[in-house]
Specification:
The complex is a heterodimer of chains A (398) and B (340). Chain A has twelve helices and seven strands. Chain A is mainly alpha-helical and 398 residues long. Chain A has a domain of 176 residues: Orthogonal Bundle (MetI-like fold). Chain A is globular and about 70 Å long. Chain B has 340 residues and is an alpha/beta fold. Chain B has two domains: 216 residues, 3-Layer(aba) Sandwich (D-Maltodextrin-Binding Protein, domain 2); 97 residues, D-Maltodextrin-Binding Protein, domain 2 (3-Layer(aba) Sandwich). In chain B, strands 10-9-11-8-12 form a five-stranded mixed β-sheet, sandwiched between helices. A three-stranded parallel β-sheet of chain B has the order 4-1-5. Chain B has a two-stranded antiparallel sheet with strand order 2-3. The chains are: A mainly alpha (398), B alpha/beta (340). Chains A and B meet through helix 2, helix 5, helix 11 and helix 12 of A and helix 1, helix 4, helix 5, strand 9 and helix 6 of B.
């Protein structure tokens, strides 16, 4: 009785309800359902229409071809592959090649970009002008031309394999690429583990010392123990591995080098082109980020007695990063997508391999869909990572 | 370089949006436009390459002209569309061109899975290798471990792999999208060898390098490459027209009819010749074109022998012998079924 009474009271107290179709929540949901439905219907129509058209033109469709043997050879790759493997494996190889050049490009473009960006603001006239010339020259010439330039330079300027430069034992530079010796003994795993341990230990020590510094103001020595760890741990590993010495050294045999590893001329040209081009954009972003930090910060830090390098490192760059990260993310995405120009200079990236695949199978739609899906996945992954990093360094209220 | 992707993306959109196609649509479309859109290579001397006046010259280009003469009565009503190896099938599938005459190899997969039909063979070719003379190589069996430059989107790429697998030799492919880039990389010494159809090698040797004697074409031919025109398989009439245009050129050569002397055959008593001349009705209307189609083809473009000699024959820089491309009556493979 009481409960019923209360509920009827509540109903009476509520204002007269509008008809449900005037309810803003209901309306919002209704329109969203309508829009989503329309988009899905359109996609469904396009897909079914495409399938109909393909069937009527007797063009094969579907992804069954991925399981068929590819039958074409690929110049380089990070996983074992031979022509009797499937198209799927060939495509995975292409994706890995794209990732390889993108990661290498992003790392070096960032390093060069930051250095050049800071250099452009240098009080040293020569350094600042040099940085300006670099930026203006590289970001104003189309990337494709730069790739052709670097590739032609590498292939024309470097000697043929038979006359390769070999100043250091086991390393050969020719117009085929750079051939390097690779460790050829399972015992080499131990020093590698030692190195990883040393790096992990260094990170731990750095954090611990920073905590001590923040808490007490004292500065425990970090450099010396880190150096010791970096030398001793891998050495101990090497001892543990039984003093392995075997290297797989490249040797000229017939036309080319056998053994060891190779960084191909195509990879070098693509990596150089992408790195230097993107670095010029990142340099401008870094410059604008630094300039966005008010002059007062420089002056205040200077008044505390910090040197220019210290001001940059401890005061300005941490603040500038918040301005720098979002546009730099776009540059990372651009670099990744620009790597699709690889096909022009013969580097087997995903576009090249999917291109060959779609040409052999005739399934253009599937081929293009695979390329789009790969770039979309790569780009979204980079975005997600950079957004996470951006959040991490964002200004925190203390 | 983005061109192929653009073409493929465009035809992607075209396939998504295109409506129903009708039988005979291609032939009707050509007549309505009063122009034949013909896909060619545009960069292969002897087959299709613009001359100093910008006019497309070559055997493939002349096949386009012959088909235009058959359908429209005028061999000049051709719009040449240069296509890369990778673009070509998509361009034809999506209707960007009406006919593909681009040194294209006839294979089972291409004939069955692309929605296209090969109408016949205009040039019997085979894949070979070219190396710098300085390399001192005289046979493909000495190419173990070689870096080989090759253009993507071709049967060449797969033959190359098959050949090295079959012989148990290793090689490093360096694959380029563009023809020019692949040749340049070879000339600059990136690769030890370049591979494509033997006709293509001869063409590169005379038109892309500064001194032909610096390069030698190895004697071995590692594959069969029958090159011929391709049409979409949604239009049987178009297929017939293209196929019989080439047959008419072969039959004319066999009968001794050339572009020079064709008018002297007017009113011939020989019914086989009368049908080529269009004096006997019904030979063109059966395919939806004018009865004088064969006359137009021969008088404006010439017979097969004339076209061969003009573009790739002994008097040209390419200097090909007729070889297996001679008429069947002279020990070759070229055979035109009877026009009757």
């Amino acid at each position: 009785m009481t409960i019923q009474h209360q509920s009827s009271d509540v109903q009476a107290a509520a204002p007269a309800r509008a008809a449900f179709y005037n309810d803003p929540t209901v309306r919002a949901i209704f329109w969203q359902v309508v829009v989503c439905g329309a988009v899905l219907a359109l996609i469904g129509y396009l897909v079914s229409n495409a399938l109909d058209n393909l069937a009527r033109q007797n063009i094969a469709s579907g992804f069954a071809f991925l399981d068929l043997p590819a039958g074409f050879a690929i110049g380089e790759g990070m996983i074992d592959y031979d022509p009797s493997n499937t198209y799927l494996r060939a495509i995975v190889l292409g994706v890995l090649n794209t990732i390889k050049v993108a990661v290498a490009g992003i790392i070096f473009a960032t390093i060069i970009g930051v250095i050049v960006g800071v250099a452009r603001l240098s009080p040293n006239w020569l350094v600042a002008r040099f940085a300006t010339v670099y930026i203006e020259a590289l970001r104003n010439v189309p990337l494709l031309l730069q790739l052709f330039f670097w590739y032609a330079l590498l292939v024309e300027a470097l000697p043929i394999a038979r006359e390769a430069y070999g100043p250091i034992m086991g390393f050969y530079l020719s117009n085929r690429g750079l051939n390097v010796p690779l460790p050829d003994d399972i015992g080499f795993v131990f020093p590698l583990v030692g190195l990883l341990l040393a790096i992990a230990g260094s990170v731990w020590l750095y954090r611990r010392n920073k905590r001590i510094h923040d808490a007490t103001g004292e500065t425990p020595n970090t450099i010396v123990p880190v150096l010791i760890m970096l030398v001793v741990f891998p050495f101990l590993g090497w001892v543990a591995g039984g003093f392995p010495t075997a290297f797989d050294t490249p040797e000229l045999k017939g036309f080319s080098f056998n053994g060891g590893g190779v960084v191909s001329a195509e990879f070098m040209a693509l990596w150089l082109g992408l790195t230097l081009y993107t670095a010029s954009f990142i340099a401008e972003i870094v410059r604008s980020g630094i300039q966005a930090v008010t002059k007062g910060q420089w002056e205040a830090a200077g008044a505390l007695g910090l040197r220019r390098g210290q001001i940059l490192r401890f005061v300005v760059l941490p603040q500038a990063l918040r301005v720098i990260i979002p546009p730099t993310t776009s540059q990372y995405l651009n670099l990744t997508k620009n790597s699709s120009l690889a096909v022009a200079i013969g580097y087997p990236d995903i576009v090249s391999i999917a291109g060959t695949t779609l040409n052999q199978t005739g399934q253009a739609i599937e081929g293009i869909a695979i390329i789009m899906a790969v770039y979309l996945t790569l780009s979204l992954s980079i975005s997600a990572f950079m957004n996470w990093y951006n959040k991490k360094i964002a200004l925190v209220d203390r | 370089m983005m061109q192929p992707i653009k073409t493929i993306a465009l035809s992607f959109a075209a396939v998504l949006l295109a409506g129903q196609a009708f039988a005979g649509a291609t032939l009707d479309g050509i007549k309505a436009n009063d122009s034949l859109r013909c896909g060619v290579s545009g960069s292969l001397a002897g087959f299709s390459l613009p001359d100093s006046q910008g006019v497309m010259q070559g055997l493939d280009a002349d096949v386009c002209r012959a088909v235009a003469a058959a359908i429209l009565g005028d061999s000049e009503k051709v719009e040449f569309v240069p296509l890369s190896a990778q673009q070509r099938f998509t361009a034809l599938q999506s209707g960007e061109v009406d006919l593909l005459s681009r040194n294209t190899t006839w294979t089972l997969t291409r004939d069955t899975s692309l929605g296209l039909d090969f109408t016949g063979v205009t040039f019997y070719d085979g894949q070979g290798f070219m190396v710098p003379t300085s390399l001192g190589v005289s046979s493909v069996s000495e190419l173990d471990g070689a870096a080989v430059c090759v253009q993507t989107g071709t049967t060449t790429e797969k033959n190359l792999t098959d050949f090295f697998r079959a012989t148990g030799m290793s090689f490093q492919p360096v694959v380029f999208e563009g023809f020019e880039e692949s040749v340049t990389a070879f000339i600059n010494g990136r690769c030890d060898a370049y591979t494509t159809d033997a006709s293509g090698l001869a063409s590169i040797r005379v038109s892309n390098v500064s001194n032909p004697d610096d390069y030698v074409i190895l004697p071995e031919i590692i594959s069969k490459e029958p090159l011929g025109p391709v049409v979409r398989n949604d239009d049987g009439e178009m297929f017939d027209v293209v196929r019989w245009t080439v047959f008419a050129m072969l039959n004319a050569e066999e009968a001794g009819i050339t572009s020079e002397n064709i008018d002297s055959f007017k009113g011939s008593e020989d019914p086989n010749i009368a049908r080529i001349m269009g004096d006997e009705p019904g030979m063109g209307t059966a395919m939806g074109i004018d009865d004088t189609w064969a006359y137009n083809v021969i008088s404006q473009v010439g017979n097969y022998g004339e076209v061969f000699e003009r573009n790739v024959g002994a008097s040209t820089p390419l200097g090909f012998q007729r070889g297996i491309n001679a008429l069947w009556t002279q020990g070759g493979l070229m055979y035109g079924p009877p026009i009757r």
